[in-house]
Amino acid sequence: MYFPVGWINTFQCLDKEFNDDDEIKGVAFNQHLPIVAISTKRSLSLWTIQQDGFHLEQRIELKTIPHGTDMLWKVFPDYSLLLLGLETSKLLLFKVYYNSNINSSNLNETSSYEKEYRKLRCSTSSSISCRIRMELFQTLDCEYGNVMSICSDRQHLIVGTTLGSLILFSWRSGEFIQFISSDFIYSSLPEDYKKKIDNNDNEMGIVSLHYDFHRNIYAMVLKCGLLLFVTEEITLNLKNLKVIKIIDHLNSVCVQFNRRYNLVAVGCKNGDVVLLEISKDYQFNERSRLSMSYRGFTENEIGQVSSLCFSSHDGYAIAVGYSKRGFAIFHISGVCIMTTLPNVLERMISSNTSNSNITLSKKMETFESGVRTIGWDSEGYHLLAASNDNSTLLDISFCKSVMCRTPSQSKSPYLLLQSADKLLRFHMSSGANFVNADWEPLQIPVSYLTFNYPMKYVAVSGDGNHIALAGRRGCILYNSMIKKWRMFGSLTQEYKIKCYGITWIDNVVLALVSRNEKNESELLLFPRYHLDESSLICKDIITDRKILFIDTTSVLLRITKDETKIVPLIFLYDESMKLHIYSCSIEYLITKQIKALLTKIDTIDMSEFHKDVLPRSMTSVYCKSNVNINSTENYKLLSSVRVMFLRANGDLTVLQINTNKEYLLETGVDTFWIDNELSYNDNIVYFTYNGKHKRGTDMSIVYLTKLHTSHIRIKNIIPFDLDAIPLGTLKENGVFLHILETIRHRIDNNNENHHLFIENPLGFPYYEMQPKMYPYIHGLLLGLLFQCKINNEISELIHFAKHLPILKYSPLTFLANLEWMLHYVLVVGSSSNDHSFSIEILNNNEFIKIDLQNGLLSVIQFLRNFDQFYEIIINCLRKTDIIHWDKLFTSIGESSTQVFNHCINNNLIYPAANMLRILQHTEGIDQVLNYSYEVLKLALKLFQFELSNDIIRFIKMLEEEKIAELKENGLDNNNTDNNNNGYLINNDDDWFGNVMIQNILSIQCRELMIHGDLFALLQLERNLNISINKWLNAGEKDKSGKLPLMKVDEEDTNNYWEDLFDNLHKSFNLPRACTLPEGKIQKDLSLQRTNHLRKNFESIVSYFTTTQFTLYLINDLVSDLKYLHNCFHMNHCYGFTLLLSTILCDVDYIVNILKENKEYQSFYLKLLLHPNNKEYIILRQYIQQQISDN
After folding, report:
1. Residues 741, 747, 749, CA angle at the centre, nearest 5°?
2. pLDDT at 990
3. CA-based Rg of the chain, rounded to a whole angstrom?
4. 44 CB contacts (<8 Å, ≥6 apart)?
5. Burial class of residue 970 in the structure, from the number of CB atoms within 10 Å of its CB (0-12 exposed, 13-18 middle, 19+ buried)
6. Under a CB-based contact definition with an 8 Å cutoff, are residues 643 and 654 in contact?
7. Residue range 46-53: average pLDDT?
8. Alpha-carbon distance 727 to 730, whole Å?
9. What is the 3-state secondary structure (H, E, C) of 983-1027?
10. Alpha-carbon distance values, 768 to 3, 434, 760, 761, 783 (Å)
């Protein structure tokens, strides 16, 4: 869910540059504000990030401070404590105060963003508005060994020493609390390790130490490589520790808990990171292994794990630093999100440079000497790392899915990422290629960022037109239709709101959870058009506990048999495991104001379900109610909704509120997305990502009304990808989006002094998010089809499929999904591979795997209801091995020739053309040639000239095969009719002499000429490389070239002249020269264009009509008409030249032709009298005068 975006920024310090004498020893982010503590050999300093994102501003520096290695922050409401562990037996504890420049005491009702922002910008350029002060609070002495590692529980600072002992200090006072000797560790060690420690006491030093608040257990790594898990018992305020688990096979070097996922990450000497799952009985099972070995890196290249850190808030991502080379960011599933190590292609380029003139930039690979320390900021927007050999600090900017903070957004059809200063909204590109332009950046107002960094919660309205965003205080709204942000007008009002969750109600009301001065959680409702206390719709105190999740669902409430209404329900889950349910009746007043009434429905204690372990997410979904219409309103409301919970252990459950029962849906889930728009007969469709077993993404279809009666699983509908992270669904397009990163490096060529890759002029790697799309509709339809096959509901499924959004927004993708349906039942069949596509259906509380091959007839029956049936069949045949063809033809009850004839008879040109490849394997060459000629005729008839060219090339290939076959059989092919001069063709290749093709092309050209579609004739010439001039000269000028004088009846000839002239205009999309009402358009054209045209066509502009004013603005079209005019003139086709000359307004040519060919005079002059040609009245008078004078 985390993605690198943009450049790797080198943090440049404005006031000083670190050098080797002042080498960086440690770096740590404060988890409350974007404050960075940097420890060097000479000083300890605090820095804040500037608004440009890649400059550090030093706020405080304490010099002559002994340098330390480990640093640890402890955050309190009004201050933070910073612990610096020295390389001796001492620790320095500093107190850091941060007083906001904006607080309730110095704000008044007239305080505005503009006023306060200008005042603040005059004093600092930092991204946060607070004054920072630091002072030495305590010096802590460890009398029982030197400091080796540090961690914290809720109240105490715990120090691990070089002798394996633990020392506890009070955070608030800095006083010594307790010493715990290493005896409890030594007594639990295996005998071989005891002997090793007896020889060297330092082998029991605690090199890494971490504490899990939820389970009250420690994880510690000894210098000898052992990993220990330790529980605690409190007796008389003293801790008694007990080793419950020793892991000796990992050769551990560091450890950290992931409390959100019940995981512990163990860094190993071989460079791998092992994620262990923690069960209730303290069993530790390997979940996944994060390794760079799949990219070809060995332990000797990258070294051991030097530092690791989970993303601060949600724990989705883990950063891993290596001691010898680079670092990497992994998703907890094992997917590598990003790394500074080169990929396979880059490594090949690097290895080839030693024997070439190309040299790599020194900055091409960052951290080529390894990583000393690495850490996330409080929200995962920045990853800060320090290298081993120099004083360079690097910051990688990250964005993350809005679901990380707002899990209910899994229902949204819009994919959004949030970064430190902007939102990124994804849009499908118009074509098949996906480029950076697909990410629409929505820049967050700097004035809001300054006072409220970091950004936390984001919610998109159901229609996608409005986005709500909340930082530390208040919130802002974005209107995507007018592209503007809306903020509180008063900072005083904004300061009062401390947001802990946001969601939209009915697209018009924003529901916001805030903590008031009494630490009570209250629900605030604002209209989308105004943020102000005066427009506050409703305000209600929910609980005195912190709200963790909020979500809304609109329910269709049936009041009577004929009366219904929409009632939004609001669900709030607090940290005491209470689920609060409210209804919110919204009334739209005549004054365009909104009135809302909050009514508490119920409060449910969820502790019996969640067993003291808070869930990771909560999402509510609507379902049809089947309760009696006479039931109470609250009971009907609660029966119309289900609440889904994703637990910390990966269990996905659903709560049926009206019966107070919870059902288990899935296990081992990392993330899930809901696709409500695809609901079918009250089935909910959702996706689950399970990286634990490298299983990829599954789709499930669950009947909500009667849970545990109908459940379909489409497993591995999207395969597991080691380099891509799933982001969510694009429902209108029927695709599931993955994101992978690509790196562009700058490579210098010393000899030629240019760059092979120029994307990055600075020399640092550039990380670019690349979308990767997977279709999924085929799995949905297959799953429902097998269920409907059992229940005989095929007709309902057909209606459902034909009304899917994808059919409207992306018909080609929908067609591809139907092809995938057929492919899976024809080829894939049943497979025993757990990582392949399969379908399971719940039957008597047990999932049964479906044999896909038994569903071929059902799929064909289903596909026959779509107009593209034959196109689906043929496309599937083209992509399927020939051994499956007979099975498919038998199933549809038609042979290959019958399928082809159906396509020809129904003008299905592209399926017919694709069918030629199939017939090539089932029929003889002569028969396929005959079929090819039929397809060529149809393609020309439908003006598919590019396809016609492909078919001619296909015919050429068949003829070459036939000639080779004749030669191989010793037959003479001199008698083959291949001696035509190719009069229609521009070049002299043998295949152009095919008489059959010549005749087909000649007939098509004649048809186009007779009907006046000269633009199509011109396209035919260009696409098929023929020559209109040669064709006319070879005899056609005596046939269709004599038009339009070949009609016997004079009236028919006059009508044909007008029809032909009209078709010429339509062919080139030119307007007719008819007199328009009051001449408005012609007058407008004259005013806008006459002055320009007079300069270039002074002699003829007086004869211009609407046609010429339009024509002479399109140079290419004028050139095309002149080319055709020359072809017809050279071959004495004067009827066509007259018509083209009229369009081109070549007055002199018209007069000369009519003088030389008097048989045209009568017809031409009558043509100009037609009502559609009234604007030619001046031209007609001039021509008639010239002819009469003659």
Report:
1. 165
2. 39
3. 38
4. 37, 38, 61, 62, 65, 84, 92, 94
5. exposed
6. yes
7. 68
8. 10
9. CCECCCCHHHHCHHHHHHHHHHHHHHHHCCCHHHHHHHHHHHCEC
10. 9, 12, 11, 15, 36
1002/211 Cα distance (integer angstroms): 85
Check if the beta carbon of residue 10 is closer than 8 Å to that of residue 404. no
Q: What is the DSSP annotation of 319-360? A: EEEESSS-EEEEETTS-EEEESS--HHHHHHHHHGGGSSEEE
Q: What pTM was estimated for this model as a whole?
A: 0.81
Provide CB contacts within 8 A for 650, sequence distance 6+.
261, 667, 668, 669, 670, 690, 692
H-helix or E-strand spanning residue 439 = strand 439-443
For 943, half-sphere exposure in the C-beta direction (CA atoms, 13 angstrom radius) is: 10
User: Per residue in 1107-1154, pLDDT tens?
Assistant: 888 888 777 889 999 999 999 999 888 889 999 999 999 999 999 999
Helix (H) or strand (E) holding 1111: helix 1106-1111
The CA-based dihedral angle spanning residues 40, 49, 314, 553, taken in that order and rounded to the nearest 10 degrees:
170
Listed in sequence order, the residues at least 6 apart from 493 whose beta carbon sits closer than 8 Å to its beta carbon are 474, 532, 533
Q: pLDDT class for 457, splitting at 50, 70, 90?
A: very high
Q: What is the pLDDT at residue 619?
A: 94
Which token pair is 929?
Answer: 């040639």
In whole angstroms, give the CA distance from residue 754 to residue 1173: 61
CB 405, CB 457: distance < 8 Å: yes
Beta strand ranges found along 461-546 (DSSP E)? 466-470, 476-479, 484-486, 499-505, 509-515, 521-527, 538-543
Do strands 263-268 and 273-278 pair parallel, antiparallel, or not at all (unpaired)? Answer: antiparallel
- What whole-number distance in Å separates Cα of residue 879 and Cα of residue 891? 18
Residues 36 and 47: beta-carbon distance below 8 Å: yes
Which tokens go with 509?
């009301």
pLDDT band at residue 918 using 50, 70 and 90 as cut-offs: very high
Please state the φ and ψ torsions of residue 51, each to the nearest 5 degrees.
-70, -20
Which comes out higher in pLDDT, residue 282 or 366? 282
Confidence at residue 350, expressed as pLDDT on a 0 to 100 scale: 57
In the three-class reduction of DSSP (H, G, I as helix; E, B as strand; rest coil), residue 58 is classed as: strand
Q: In the structure encoding, which two tokens stand for residue 367, read together?
A: 């951290």
Question: In whole angstroms, how far apart are CA 660 and each of 601, 645, 976?
Answer: 14, 14, 85
217: which strand partners? 212, 231
**Nearest partner of 405 among 466, 315, 332, 314, judged by Cα:** 314
Angle at 327 between CA 322 and CA 328, to 5 degrees: 125
DSSP annotation string for 1118-1135? HHHHHHHHHHHHHTT-HH
Which tops the pLDDT comparison, 218 or 341?
218
Determine the residue type at 357: N
Give the separation between CA 853 and CA 825, rounded to whole angstroms: 5
Tokens at 613, concatenated: 């372990």
**Are residues 168 and 71 in contact, defined by beta-carbon separation less than 8 angstroms?**
no
Alpha carbon separation from 436 to 5, 346, 741, 767, 1074 (Å, rounded)? 11, 22, 12, 11, 48
- Mean pLDDT within 408-416: 87
AA letter at 232: E
Closest among 772, 697, 778 to 737, alpha carbons compared: 772
Which DSSP category does 828 fall into? I
What interhelical angle do 909-922 and 925-941 show, nearest 10?
170
Long-range contacts: 484-489, Cβ < 8 Å, 24+?
485/444, 485/445, 485/448, 486/529, 486/530, 486/531, 487/113, 487/445, 487/447, 487/448, 487/531, 488/531, 488/532, 489/112, 489/531, 489/532
Question: What is the chain's length?
Answer: 1190
Report the sign of the C-alpha dihedral through residues 854, 855, 861, 866, in that order. Answer: negative
User: Mean pLDDT of all residues in the chain?
Assistant: 82
**Torsion angle of the four alpha carbons 133, 136, 138, 139, in this order, in degrees rounded to the nearest 10:** 150
